[in-house]
Each structure stands twice: as C-alpha cells, then as structure tokens.
Amino acid sequence: MKKTISLILIAFLSISFSGLKAETIRLDQLDVSKGTTGWPNHPTQVNKSIEGNPLTMKGKVYQYGVGAHAPNRFDIKVNGATRFSCVVGIDDEVRPAPTNEGIAGYNIIQVKNGVETIVKSGVIASTDESVVEIDVDITGWDFISLETTESNGNNWSDHVDWCDAVFEYTGEAPFTVYYDEMIPKFHCMFNHFSLPNTRMMHRYKTLNPKDVIHVENLPAGLTFNPQRNIVEGKLPAGKYSYTVIATTTDGSTITKEATIDVRSNLISPTPLMGWMSWNVYEGDITEEIIKKTADAVVEKGLLAAGYNYIAIDDLWHGSARDANGYLDCNYSKFPSGMKALVDYVHDKGLKIGIYSDAATRTCAGAIGSLGYEEKDAEQYAKWGFDFLKYDYCFAPTDQATAIERYTKMGDALKATGRDFYYLICEWGERKPWEWASAAGGHSWRTTLDSRDTWDHGRYDTEHCGVVQAIDIMRDLAYYSGPNHFNDADMLMTGLYGTGKSSSHDGANGMTNREYQAQFSMWSIFASPLIVAFDVTTMNDETKRILTNPEVIAINQDKMGLQAECIYNTNQIEVYAKDLENGDVAVAFLNRKSTAAQIEIGLDKLFLEGSHIVRDLWAHEDVMTVSDKISATVQSHEVKLYRVRPAGTSTEELNETDKSIKIMQDKNRLLIQFTDFQNDTKQVQLLDISGKTLMTKSCNEKTASFDTSNLSKGVYLVKATTGDLSITEKHIIN
Ligand code: GLA
Question: Are 450 and 585 in the same domain?
C-alpha cells in the first residue's frame, strides 16, 4: 500500500513538473549595454537599429530586438534556460551597401566548463535574400555568446540586428554578463626576465577583478603583495620559478607556473631606441640615405641620448634568390653591398637592423623569408646585422600559423650564434603578447601602422593615430617587461606631415604639443622608441622632445614596466608606472579639445606621506603633496611627472642603489661603481670587434683608462662586479 501511494505521488509530481510552462525573456529585456559594438561611440540600441531607426530587415519591421555593429558580442549567463531562438541579419538602413560592405560573420557560442565552442556560424550580408534563423537547445550550457565578426576584412556598414531573440527558462531568468566574468582567465604574462640584482616587479591579474590571487614557492629574495597582486624583489643571476594561483568567484582555481630568467646579457633589458626607414622613405632607401642618417644620429646627439639602432625597412631586396637560395640586396640602391653598409654603421657606434616577412612576399611586394628562414638568418648574420623586423603580410590569419612561422625565424636567428633583436610585426591581430616572447621576440607591434595624426577617426583594418594606439596599449600593461615589450609602432615626432606612408590618408602631421604627448605616452608605456623622420633636418623642438633625458629615463627604467591606466573617464586618462628606485612616473593625458583640470590621489599610486612631484618637461619640482596631484592640462597635452618621497633628491636615491656608470672626459674613460663595497671589480677596454685592449682589476670605487694615445674610433668598455656586468660603446674623437 505504501509503495502504491509513493508511485501515485511520483506520477503526480512528474505530471505537474512537466506541466510547468517555461517562461520567456527577450534579449532586448536584458541589460544589453554590457554588449560590445564595433562602431566607437555607438552603443547597442534596444528595439532600434544602431543608427536609431526601426529595426528593419528585408523590408520587415521588427518590434523587438537589439541593434548592434560588427564586431559585436553579447555574453549571457544561461542560468538554467533551455532554448534560444532569434533572427539575425544586416539592417536595411545600409541598403544598398557599397560593394564589399555590410557583410559580417556570425557565431553562436556555447560556453561550458570554461570552454568556448562555436555551435552555429555563417555570414550575413545586406544582399542576402532572407535573414538567418537561429534555434538552439541550450540545456546544460553555462553561458551563450552571440557574436558577429568582420568576415571580409572590414566592418564598414556592418549594422547587425538581433531580432525576436527569446530565451525559454524556468526559475530565474538568464542575464547578460561582461566577457571578463565568463571565463576564468589570467590577463598577464608569466615568463619574466631581469638583470641580476635589479628590482623586478611581476604584476598579476585575471579578467574578473573579483578573483583572488596568491602565489606559492617563491624563491628567496621575492615577496608577494596581495594588496596589489604583485611579486617583487631582486635576484642574482639564475633561472627561477614559482606558482601563481587564482581562485575564481565560483570557487575553482586556475594555476600557472611563472618563470624568471635573470642574467646580465639580455638583448633588450630596456625598450629599444632607434630609427627606422619606412615612414619617411618607404622604398626610396639607398646606401647614401642610411649612411647620412647614421652620421646625423651621431652628430645631432641622438646616439648620446640612447638611440643606438638604425633599421632598414622594406624594399632593400634584390629581385631573385641565387641558385643556393640566398637573397642579396638591390645593388642599384646599395651599390657597395650590405656588408660595407653594416660596417659603416657599426663604425659609428650604432647597431643596424633589417626587415623581412613571414610569407613569400613582404608587405611592399619584395621577396619574403617563408621556407628560407635559415638561409636568410645566416645571410643577415654574415652581413653583421643586429636586428630583424619580421612582418606578416600575405600570411594566413590564424594564430597557430603565426606562432609556427615566427618561432621558425626566431630559432633560425638563434642558430646563427649572433645576437639579434627580433621585432615581431603582426600588428597585434593574433594577440602576440601571449606568445611572441616564447617565439624569441623582444617586442611585438600591438597596433596597425601609425599615421602622423592625433586621431585617425576610425579603428579600421589598416592604420591608427595616436589615440587609437593608446586605446590598444591601455589594456596590455601586464604583458610587458624587461626583454619583451609591447610596441605601439614608430613615433611621428619630427615628421610634420613630411613622411610617406605615415601621411597616407591625409595624415598631415601634428603640433609639437601632440608630438610631445605621443613621446610621453610611448615612454611611460615602455614602448620601443623608434623615430622615422629625416634626422638630417631635425629642428630644435624635435631634438628637445626626443632627447629629454628625464623622459627617456622613464622609458629606460630597468624594471621595464608598462604604465597602468588608473583613471579613464570622459577623455581624461591617468597612467602610473613604478620605477626601479621606488619613484612613480605619472602621466596626465587630456584627449579633449579643451583644457581640463586633472587630479589623482597618492593612494592610487600606492604612496603614503609627503611627496615631491617633478614635471619632466619643465625640468622642475612643481609641488610637494601628501594627498593628491592636480594640474591643468591643455587639450592634447600630456603632463609627465616623477613622484618621489619628500626630503630626497633623485641623485640621493641613486646613491643608495648599486650602479655602474661609465663617463668620458677629454683624455679619460672613468668607470664609477656605487655601493658594491668590497666586491671584486674588473674593467676592460675592447675594440669594436670585441678584442680586449686593456684590463684592470680594482677594489676602489673608480677605475679609469687613459685614452689620450688611442686612435679615433669606437671602443667598448666593459665593467663587471659580482653578477652585474655592463658594456657601453664610447667614441674617441
Ligand atoms: C607593414 C609594417 C610597416 C612597414 C611596411 C613595409 O605595413 O607594419 O611598419 O614595415 O609593412 O612594407
């Protein structure tokens, strides 16, 4: 009897449960402001097209839906919902769209256990005869993502409508989330480099700020600061590792192994500084131009300020490989051949770079390196090059092939046994910050080609102005450090609209204030500082900007951090960068067309007590503050500050830090060791080929070489103590 009652009860319960009618909720009833659209300043529209018209596709007007612009994405927590249906297409407001416009890809993505799987995809075009109908069973999914993409290389006229978009659910309704809240994921790098006994700082974050991060197995010498999620300290030369763990909001953990490679012979402990030929000359490069640029870089004080690379960009190439597969230069441009040019540039105390592409052709159509990586690397090494920029035109769009091709060339460069700086140039399209360092890269372009303009107006597939590059760099701060930097592309300073490619599309140059702002931002971003103008005609204003030692010191700081954006509202941005000696560099950026008052609390810089604020463009201490820094900033101006504790001077702080300085006066090279007590010290004078001419051991703070009997030329001075070793070039005239 008892059994019969239970059976009846079960039957009744299951009838009544299956009889519960699922409820429905439409996409336009959710918070769609969390969705993204690919048209800046045009947020998603509820029950309207992206331009505010009635939602209309193929002549039919839809009462309910969301107007967006590709590339766009909505991420929705399914929350037990079972079914999603909608129609998607291009709004009639763009009809007839110009050829190759109004075409987008669409994806319906399942997210389950942190894994994204595309379950439906295709292309929608304004020329389609009907809309695409979607109807998917989403039972058991964690999230559903609705996405549109640029399928035809541009997003022009991609006005996307998601209409009659309905979820069926029982219980609590689904809701939109930010992408960051969906998949537990770190948003930072884990392979670190450092010079020995130099302060380092590793910053960690996940996409969801609510996740909790901690570290385990830290080597002695490093500590973890849970308030800031940073590991910091100093280590002697060696290889180290430790574990980073994030506990996500749902209680699961993600674990990563961090590695640290500490050595004195890093190729790029600080961002590269130099000159590159493309923007100003494009294909009109010649031996004479490179030589006169090298002369000017030395004579006009750019080398002394730190610009020590000259790089030849595209179109140096001969027209065919030889029978053995080697490629020579174009002799009508470089009549003495590459070796002679490389020697000339080296004799000036400069390093020299060359260019190729990870495909059969370069961007401008010369011969690329695909399939000839070893031969090309061997050739560059034989000529004596020190740097390769490796471009990505005519290559497949996926990330895996890019990793494979860049690693192949990275390995080929290493196999030559010569030190190469390796610049990876795939414009940030395949997230190189996640893999380019492992491929051997020392920096990677994060942006499309820069143009000589403040605001290029659109985020298209080819070019960007200063603010577009800043918008991309802003989010990448935790992917930069010694020996591997985000590269925001060449500086426009000095061009004044006279460049070639940099002035395409009417980019007619900027004001000195804007050039100074770009230089300030690239400096605090720890981006390579690569100029691209005719140095022989450099004016005083350009020289003042490019050689400001206090600003360059921010860029060249040995901790190698990229500044983090700590305030970003209404076209006002504030950035902060921790410096090796404990000072903090701060940039106030005003993107508005009018002046603005900007302020930031010292607490946002993790500083307490009284601090002196030095204006690095005015070269003076401008305020002593204990609560906040504030200033009026002109339109398109950057105020760049160095903040240090009150009662100190920068010199005093340096005195307490270990350092080696090499100075030159008329008849002497003077080497000064600070704070090494009784460590054994050795100094060597070498010729440019690396042959030792003189060696001295010393236990004192200083050592010197008499240079009065040396013939004119470039010499190397190497100073070593403990794990620290530096080599500098000096010109004896
Ligand atoms: C690409 C690169 C540029 C330049 C040109 C040369 O566009 O991004 O920096 O090297 O190729 O063709």
Answer: no
CA nearest ligand 1 atom 5, residue: 363
Interval between CA 372 and ligand 1 midpoint (Å):
20
Encoding tokens for residue 112? 């389950």
Q: Cα(575)–Cα(554) distance, rounded to whole angstroms?
A: 13
pTM for this model (two decimals): 0.75
Of the three residues 147, 165, 182, the one that is the final residue of a domain is 182
Q: How confident is the model at residue 12 (pLDDT cuts 50, 70, 90)?
A: very low
Q: Clarify whether 295 is annotated catalytic.
A: no
Residue 247 CA to ligand 1 centre (angstroms) = 42
Both 533 and 578 in a single domain?
A: no
Mean pLDDT, residues 632-657 taken together? 79
Of 251, 240, 247, nearest to 226 by C-alpha is: 247
436 in any annotated domain: yes
Non-local (6+) Cβ contacts of 699 within 8 A are 678, 680, 681
Domain harbouring 149, CATH code: 2.60.120.1060
Domain carrying residue 695: 658-732
391 C-alpha to center of ligand 1: Å? Answer: 7
**449 is an active site residue:** yes
Q: Which two tokens stand for residue 663?
A: 């100075």
Q: Which residues line ligand 1 (CB under 6 A)?
A: 278, 313-314, 362-364, 391, 425, 449
- Domain end residue (candidates: 155, 182, 209): 182
The lowest-confidence range among 133-147, 241-255, 561-575 is 241-255
Report yes or no on 4 lying in a domain: no
Report the pLDDT value the prediction gives residue 137, as an integer from 0 to 100. Answer: 97
d(CA 450, CA 717): 37
| CATH code for the domain in which residue 493 is found | 3.20.20.70
**Closest atom, ligand 1, to C-alpha of 425:** 8
Shared domain check, 686 and 590: no
Point out which residues pair with 106 in neighbouring strands: 122, 148
Residue 267 alpha carbon to ligand 1 centre in Å: 23
Nearest to 128 by CA among 63, 48, 60, 52: 60
Which residue among the candidates 357, 391, 487, 557 is catalytic per the annotation? 391
Residues 430 and 544 in one domain: yes
Q: Return the ligand 1 atom nearest residue 357 CA.
A: 11
Residue 484: pLDDT band with limits 50, 70, 90: very high
Pocket probe for ligand 1: among 313, 464, 504, the residue whose CB has the most ligand atoms within 8 Å is: 313
Question: How many domains does the chain contain in total?
Answer: 5
Looking at the structure, tell me whether residues 254 and 312 fall in a common domain.
no
Question: What sign does the CA torsion over 392, 398, 403, 409 have?
Answer: negative
Mean pLDDT over residues 320-324, rounded? 98
